[in-house]
Amino acid sequence: MDANSFIIYLHELRNQCLYTHSALSIFNQSLEKKSQTGVLFSGQAALNAASQVGAILWPSRARARRRGEVLREKLQLPDSHALGDRRFVELWEHADEKLDEWIKNTKGQRVLFDFVGDPKTIDLPGLKEDCIYRLYDTTSHVFVFRGLGYNMVNLSKAIEEIGRRTEILMKQIMDQVQGAEGEGRAEEPANNDSPPQAAPTSASEIEPLSDAAATTAEEPKDSAEQEPAKADAPAKAKAKAKAKAKAKPKAAAKPKATAKPKAAAKPAAKSTAKPKAKARKAKSDA
Fold first, then answer.
1. What is the full DSSP assignment across 170-204?
2. What's the rounded Cα separation, in Å, for the pair 220 and 215?
3. 283: burial class by Cβ within 10 Å (0-12, 13-18, 19+)?
4. pLDDT of residue 209
5. Low-confidence ranges of the chain (pLDDT < 50)
6. Interacting residues of 95 by C-beta distance below 8 A, sequence separation 6+
7. How is the chain split into domains, by residue range?
8. In which element (H, E) is residue 132 found?
9. Cα 23 → chain centroid
10. What pLDDT does residue 182 have?
11. Looking at the chain, which terminus has fewer C-beta neighbours within 10 angstroms, N or C?
């Protein structure tokens, strides 16, 4: 695999991880708002995006397995993974045919569509999971789609791990490319036996994710990293207070006291005009 193709695969991996993360954010918001449609829509969207991550890294087709091996090697991912389950990898493929198959397999049985909540509250005795088309169990965090259940908490953790590893490796490659370009622009050394380092042209020339970087990718940020942001809060509040204090004198300077007296002077002019008109009329009558 050439380096350019490898980077494109990494880019798409990162995108699908971002899409999964966005779908899960909508999923959580919908749960808070108790929006059943939002929960089911975003949950299914998260599954679809995550299954594409699985398909890129753990492809089920033989002709694509080498690509998965190269990507997993560089990202330091195991050959066996929950996202590599063939049923999950192929979740988004041939959806219409899988619907046909589900209808055929559940014919004559009680089925359930689109439910969010505790399944124990449903009055459907003997209901089997493979007879559920779409459901989210709020007690176990399992999203059932076409008779198969997926733990959304575990899914979120797996996608977050892969996304972080991908970001770190992409940065590592970009640093390597920029370093090679910088050496190429520099003056040629006197010793021609040490040419500048070249940018990678194949995936084999790309360094795998280091163990330290892989460990960092798995560790969430601790509270110590968030403390500086909290410490800045008083400073921001003071800055806002100063801005308000400066804005107040400008706002007070707007009213003009001379505008209203001028408007009031016009009726006075009209009132004096009427007596003159009457006086003229009186003379003509005389």
1. HHHHHHHHHHHHHHHHSPPPS-TTSPPPPPP-BGG
2. 10
3. exposed
4. 73
5. 192, 194-197, 219-239, 242-286
6. none
7. 3-113+152-157, 226-285
8. none
9. 7
10. 60
11. C
Nearest to 10 by CA among 173, 218, 201: 173
This prediction's pTM: 0.67
What does R_g of the chain's alpha carbons equal in angstroms? 35
Q: Please compute, for residue 108, the number of CA atoms within 13 A of its CA located in the half-sphere on the CB side.
A: 1
H or E stretch covering 150: strand 148-151
pLDDT in tens, 158-200: 999 999 999 999 998 888 877 666 655 555 555 545 444 455 6
DSSP H helix total and E strand total for the chain: 9, 4
Angle among Cα 24, 34, 23 to the nearest 5 degrees reads 15
Q: State how far the Cα of 81 lies from the Cα of 77, in Å rounded to an integer.
A: 8
